[in-house]
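Predict structure. Input: Thiamine-binding protein domain-containing protein, 95 residues.
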Amino acid sequence: MVAFSVSPTGGDDSVGDAVAEAVRVVRASGLPNETNAMFTNIEGDWDEVMDVVKRAVDAVAAVSPRVSLVLKADIRPGHTGQLTAKVARIDDALG
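Output follows.
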């Protein structure tokens, strides 16, 4: 599972259109994903996920000469459904 944020840098103040193109790539991938105010989370095997991240970066790079990428990965082979299961475990702990 990977949480990543990609955005153009060095341009105007609005990054929404470029970020939307990156999110469009993620959603079209068919891999489990969710987007929040800070990151897009995507789940799958390493090669699949990293291919999607690269394509999302390429989508932003198509409109900006410089791109910022922040990425955090939880590498746990053999586990699926963690995109929601991790949050459910916290909710259960909160009662």
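DSSP finds three helices and four strands in the chain.
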